[in-house]
Design brief:
Helix content is 73%, strand content 2%. The chain is an all-alpha fold.
Length: 295
């Protein structure tokens, strides 16, 4: 049980310590990189464009995922001292909601960026501020709606096997879980994945003709599959089999992979792009930034 004073079932003290350490590294790395992205957007005027607003939305979502990972890491390390989860079921529900909102927002923001890039590179009109703002609002409201459903009885949040973080409860595998899973997954995983794939595919077809292919068109969709595919596979497995047959350590693997996404997204969408890279450099080197403006 997550609230008992003993170590979680299926984990040794060393394994709990190892998972907590990995989560801590993932959390701190994601927080640092995405904080730089947010800071560069706020402090660099040339980055305040509609397309970068979509990147900002992704960075905010990934910051939330990293905060969720930091909480999980903290209590994973505390479990080594045999301390229990201190916030009870209500705290688990709140943490599950926060983690689910930011995870869904991250996935949908990636799809919004894909569509925004297609619009930017393949149409004659620039992405407008009201369009970008509408996309961001739609992403967050939709994510909040689906994350609220388990709180209202459609689906349910419960502890992950380690007992230090909460997610959608897939252990029951009943009709309630199955109906919620397939409906939620269609709108928040398969549809964003389809938008990402088709946007970059059309972009690749158009830009190859002009010889100005400036965007990697294969990495974003592969990243979504790598980061969130294991969770999707675990959830889908719960609809057709008893997940208790899967070892607790193996059940923790999707969570550990998903929490690498803030770092991967920051590298793919912000740190690897010249303009954002320059903005971050200006934030880290204010004296140089003043010299550039003086010139």
């Amino acid at each position: 049980m997550a609230e008992s004073g003993s170590l979680p079932t299926g984990f040794s003290e060393l394994e709990v310590l190892a998972v907590g350490t990995v989560l801590l590294i993932e959390a701190l790395t994601g927080l640092c990189l995405n904080s730089l992205t947010i800071l560069s957007f706020c402090k660099t005027p040339e980055l305040r464009t509609p397309i970068h607003l979509l990147v900002l939305s992704l960075a905010l979502a990934d910051t939330g995922i990293s905060l969720n990972a930091l909480i999980a890491a903290t209590f994973s390390l505390l479990r080594v001292s045999h301390r229990r989860w201190p916030y009870g079921s209500e705290g688990c529900q709140a943490l599950g909601f926060q983690g689910f909102v930011t995870a869904l927002s991250s996935i949908c923001s990636s799809a919004a960026i894909a569509w925004g890039r297609y619009h930017h590179y393949c149409t004659r009109s620039q992405l407008a501020w009201n369009t970008a703002l509408s996309l961001v609002i739609c992403v967050w409201l939709s994510s909040a709606f689906w994350a609220a459903m388990p709180l209202l009885g459609w689906g349910h949040y419960d502890y992950e096997p380690l007992g230090t973080c909460c997610t959608l409860d897939y252990s029951r595998g009943d009709r309630n879980f199955t109906s919620f899973l397939f409906t939620m997954a269609f709108f928040n995983f398969f549809l964003p994945l389809f938008i990402t794939l088709t946007s970059y595919r059309f972009m690749e077809q158009k830009l190859r003709k002009t010889g100005h292919l400036q965007v990697n068109t294969t990495v974003p969709a592969r990243t979504l599959l790598f980061g969130w595919g294991p969770y999707a596979l675990l959830y889908l497995s719960a609809t057709v089999m008893d997940v208790s047959a899967i070892s607790p350590k193996l059940q923790m693997v999707p969570a550990l992979i998903a929490k690498t996404m803030p770092t991967i997204n920051a590298i793919n969408y912000a740190l690897g792009r010249e303009m954002v890279h320059r903005g971050i450099w200006q934030c880290l080197s204010p004296q140089r930034s003043e010299l550039d403006r003086a010139r």
